[in-house]
Amino acid sequence: MTRTLEADNLINGYRAPQVIKAITVGAGTYSRGMAIGQVSGAFKQIGEATYTVDTIYAIVAETTTLTEEGKIEVYLTGEFNKDCVFVKEGTTVENLIIPGRKLGLFIS
């Protein structure tokens, strides 16, 4: 996988370590800054079906489109700008602040 670093405001400071991991997800587009939840070992965007803020697992590191199941890179820890993190309609990024903090995902 080739990584291209583009300047944006997702990363908010450099005090908390960033841990990146590849996870297996279903087909679809996963955009940088998307909040991902985990339910029964499966990963989807926060706000989909039973993927509530309490299921937060990670923040997508790079925009990736998959036509079938595959791997994407996500941040397991780090500091993130709340204006660059997003969830599906029906919840808000502000609701991720406390559940994310428990995992080392600091959203401010």
Brief sketch in words of this structure:
With 108 residues, the chain is mainly β. It contains one helix and eight strands, in the order βββββββαβ. β7, α1 (97-101) and β8 form a beta-alpha-beta unit.
Strand and helix map with partners:
Elements: E1 19-25, E2 28-30, E3 35-39, E4 42-45, E5 56-60, E6 64-66, E7 70-80, H1 97-101, E8 105-107
Parallel strand pairs: 7-8
Antiparallel strand pairs: 1-7, 2-6, 3-4, 3-5, 5-7
Structural overview:
The chain has 108 residues and is mainly beta. The chain is 5% helix and 38% strand. The protein has one helix at 97-101; strands spanning 19-25, 28-30, 35-39, 42-45, 56-60, 64-66, 70-80, 105-107. The strands form two sheets. Strands 1, 3, 4, 5, 7 and 8 form a six-stranded mixed β-sheet that branches.
| Rough outline | globular
Mean pLDDT: 91
Helical percentage: under 10%
H/E order of the elements? EEEEEEEHE
Topology, number of strands: 8
Compute the separation of the termini in Å: 30 Å
Structural class, from secondary structure content? mainly beta
Low-pLDDT ranges: none
Proportion of β residues? 35-45%
Largest sheet: 6 strands, mixed
Search tags:
single chain; 108 residues; mainly beta; 6-stranded mixed beta sheet; two-stranded antiparallel ribbon; 5% helix
